[in-house]
């Protein structure tokens, strides 16, 4: 992890909400991404909720 990313995480950025993808990019199939050095997966459930 880069020093800059680690500095932000150390300041408490990890506990905040922030956008990671546009809504049209999130479908029923899981999408894996890396943000702030963290690997996460997003998808929509059968009701269309993320």
UniProtKB/TrEMBL annotation:
Q: Name one GO molecular function term.
A: 2 iron, 2 sulfur cluster binding
Task: Please state every residue range assigned to the domain named Rieske.
Answer: 17-50
Q: Which domain of life is it from?
A: Bacteria
Keyword check for Iron: yes
Protein's name according to its UniProt entry: Rieske (2Fe-2S) protein
Q: Which PROSITE patterns match?
A: RIESKE
Keywords in alphabetical order: 2Fe-2S, Iron, Iron-sulfur, Metal-binding
Q: Does the keyword Nucleotide-binding apply?
A: no
Q: Record's InterPro entries?
A: Rieske_2Fe-2S, Rieske_2Fe-2S_sf
């Amino acid at each position: 992890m880069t020093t800059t990313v680690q500095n932000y995480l150390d300041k408490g950025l990890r506990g905040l909400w922030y956008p990671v993808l546009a809504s049209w990019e999130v479908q029923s199939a899981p999408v894996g991404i890396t943000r702030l050095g963290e690997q996460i997966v997003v998808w929509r459930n059968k009701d269309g909720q993320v």
